[in-house]
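**Sequence, structure tokens**
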Amino acid sequence: MFKKAVLLILFCVSVSAISAQNAPSISSATVSFRFESKGVDGSIGGFKSTSQINSNDLIKARLSGSVQVETLKTGNFLRDWSLKSEKYFDADAHPKILFESNEIKATSQHNVYEVTGTLTIKGIKKPITLTFEQQGNRLIGTTSLYTSDFDIQIKDERTENKVSVRIQLTLGSGHLK
């Protein structure tokens, strides 16, 4: 009985390892943004992901990842330093921005998907929807958010705190066709 259990466990582990080898992984990612009211463009790096992408059925995928607040860049050293400070993003206390998908739905457009999930900035969790378009081995996502919803009050009016975000995920081995 014990031998059969061990063989069953080994079989399951082997199947999982083979499946994982065929599943696409995210080989690189870029996250860029535009602070609309000031016309400021920037990027944020240090991307890490534990996403599970099913190349045969993207709707069954799970997207999750993080970026490092310390890597935030806008092309102005003083502004970057200020944004990372306690007054805004508070990089020391909250070093990561996190995203975890809850649902992925196909839209009426070919290769376009709506990804709903939870975005965590400064420990504040908010629901968000991203629209991703599949282009070969890339997934291009866009969304917008208001920094004031995450206790980052750059301008007084909420509408003046709008940020447009673009995410480009490049898939590695086993990429989508």
